[in-house]
Amino acid sequence: MRGPVLRAERRMVVCLVGAVAGATLDGRAVVPGRVTVVRPGQVLDMGDAPGPGLRQYLAVGGGVAVPSVLGSRTTFLLGGFGGHQGRALAVGDVLAVGSAENLAAPQDVTGVLPELTDVWELRVVPGPHGAPEHLTEDGLAELFAAEWRVDHRADRTGVRLVGPAPGWAREDGGEAGLHPSNIHDSAYPVGGIMLSGNTPVIVGPDGPSLGGFVVPAVVVRADRWKLAQARPDDRVRLIPVTPEEAAHANRARDAESADPRAAAAWFEASGRHGSELPGGLAGPARPAPLAELAPSGVRPSLTVRRAGDHHVLVEAGPARLDLTVRLQVHLLARALAERALPGVTEAVEGVRSLLLAFDPEVLPHAELAAALAEAWESLPDPRGIELPVREVVLPISLDDPAAHEAMLRYQRGVRPDAPWCPDNVEFIRRVNGLASRDAVFDVVEAATYLVLGLGDVYLGAPVAVPLDPRHRLVTTKYDPARTWTPENAVGIGGVYLCVYGMEGPGGYQLVGRTVPVWRLGDAERAGATPGDPPWLLRTFDRLRFRPVGADELLRLRADVAAGRAGLDVRPATLTWDDLTAANTLLTAELEREAAAFTAAREAAFAAERERWAAR
Q: Which of 26, 53, 77, 181 is the most exposed place for a label (fewest CB within 10 A)?
């Protein structure tokens, strides 16, 4: 809300856009969008951003010359890396500017700058989730009819919206969690509107890549800039559009960037922005699936749906936890990586899903769906697969003070009346029908967890499930989510366990804390080899926890973070039989024990729902 004051040490050209209301160069006003020459010694004061709009942007000829981290020069403040020393700028910082030689001639963009406002219309493509599975048809229509208000806790991780409660079509999320918004963990596209409990949150560029919430719509790429300019208390309308309308808006936005002068002339003649054409051509229903394949033998059904304008969500089998389905999703992701489809830029595996990011101008939706169907039907028989995996033992401080600090902050600043306040462990005990808090910790210590995905929340955070169904404690996720979670907190949401990769928001019920699961620059550190990624855990790792005291954990955390120690890792294998055994249990005795545990848990779940309804 206040831009920096910068002194130039050499001649350069700059351009300011966004919420620039009073920028000056040596005291003289700077026109937003106009290329400006800055001479050595001159001072550029970007001034306040009083509104409308929230953020200012400064473009510099040659770019800001900082090291590339993970392919980017941006700063990720929550993770503490990238940009200038991985932190916010401070007085006295010196930013190097790259070479301006051989650059294209700068262009004036004043004619294509969009109007800033305090009332925003966001065009969205409905889906991938929707009615009648998750929301009622009336509930979905109300989502798009409502006027939402931007919450004061909105940031680059997510833009929270305040408004009416969604109209749910079910009582709960089953194994995925007590609240109807809970689903088996699936990847989020940037711009996806996840329903975190009853709170819509639009996933931002610093947001989680994977999580367990319903996504009923995705903001189109041409409108995502508005998320950065929406101030707290601004009003927002979600306008459903067809995929064709979304594609038209994106092409128009690209044309504006490619040739601002021509676009500005067209705007002046027509009286409107090309990328701001009116939307609203679609109803609330999500588009029809791009592909649907029936089950065949051990291979489950497959559905391919749009997840906005440049993602597709692949979902396998019915909406329940099945570890053999998870294996086949992994085999599909591996087959697609080998095919190296043009235009596909990212693939994120979920529990029973795969999210693909792609450029529809290079690979149209229909062609991608056909390629997915062909790859799925060409997969080898999974019953003969043997994957090399690892066994990993992590130290854990159960009931850690940092976990209780997160609970206390939530109670004080977000929702004091939540049923999981003041103690998450007591809530887990209650909804699972256990006799004591220690019984919760006994289960966590006894369980062997299978890592089903990475990036759940942030920075290589694993989402894992106990292999033995008797160890599958089930909870609900926070509603609304926490605004702060300590780094490497361990939590349970639905039937899943997560280790948080860094400080940030979160929704799992916290039971303790462990060592870092993410570390940059490991080439010469303990347990690392050149080329290792910064995430320390891998898909299909088997996790066990070793209880330690809070003080000992602090020492272990420091050793792992500094590279003086690595994780306790041993090689292992994973087969189809391992997963079917976990799905079905091997003996009648174990099956009876698991059924009794499940029945007690479901009864406790039902009692908890009744307590909620009585509030």
A: 26
Specify whether 534 is located in the same domain as 435: yes
204/201 Cα distance (integer angstroms): 9
**Contact call for residues 108 and 35 (beta carbons, < 8 A):** yes
Q: What's the distance, CA 139 to chain centroid?
A: 24
Locate 315 and state its tokens: 């979902």
- Residues with Cβ within 8 Å of 349's Cβ and at least 6 positions away in sequence, in order, are 187, 329, 330, 333, 453, 539
Same domain, 397 and 449: yes
**In terms of domains, do 393 and 496 share one?**
yes
Residues in the chain: 615
Yes or no: say if 480 and 196 are a contact pair by the CB < 8 Å rule: yes
* Neighbour count for residue 60 (Cβ, 10 Å): 18
Confirm whether pTM is higher than 0.85.
yes
85 in a structural domain: no
Q: Which amino acid is at 253?
A: R
In a domain, 55, yes or no: no
Residue 234 domain flag:
yes
Peptide bond into 401 cis (omega under 30): no
Both tokens assigned to 361:
């101008």
Both 429 and 553 in one domain: the answer is: yes
Please tell me the distance from the alpha carbon of residue 312 to that of residue 127, in angstroms, as a whole number: 10
- Boundary-marking domain end, from 221, 251, 276: 276
Encode pLDDT of 485-531 as tens digits.
Answer: 999 999 999 899 999 999 888 889 999 999 999 998 765 566 667 77
174, 207, 173, 176: which is closest to 193 by C-alpha? 207
Angle (nearest 5°) at CA 394 between 392 and 399 = 150
Question: Which residues constitute the domain of residue 503?
Answer: 387-589
- Classified as helix, coil or strand, 545 is strand
Residue pLDDT, tens place only, 414-460: 999 999 999 999 999 999 999 999 999 999 999 999 999 998 878 88
CATH at 356: 3.30.1360.40
- Count up the domains in the chain and report the number: 3
Q: What is the 3-state secondary structure (H, E, C) of 222-251?
A: HHCHHHHHCCCCCEEEEEECCHHHHHHHHH
